[in-house]
User: Fold this.
Amino acid sequence: MFLFKNNPVLIFIPVLIFFSCTKDKAELKKEGPPSASYCDSMKTAGKVSYKCYIDSLVTVRCRKCHKPGGDGNGDFTGFNGIKAKTGLIPGKIQANPPNGDRMPQDGPPYLPDSVIAKMLSWINDGALNN
Assistant:
């Protein structure tokens, strides 16, 4: 007790450590999956979210081939790889693509029209990492 009374630095150090750890936990939480309320707010606003919808869609239907070492053209294991191909994706997921095969190649069944509409909406809104 006497050490803390005469040396304010000793009091400051534990406080600093506490707040440093708290900040790290908050930053880790930001990197996790989006909250249900965030996804609900995106739906309410009529927006398609990469984190709430597109990432899951691509995981299930595209990443089997579009991964490092995979057969697909492009690496869709992260946002930047998908964003880089947004100019090609609309033509590849719709019927009668202008070049090459329709995606996903494991179809039919191909993507339903409602899913294609959401992908196109996300792309047309700027393909944001939201």
Notes: The chain has two domains: 2-31, 36-124. Residues 1 and 7 are 10 Å apart (CA to CA). The two ends are 50 Å apart (CA to CA). The helical segments are 2-6, 8-31, 36-44, 50-61, 79-84, 89-93, 113-124.
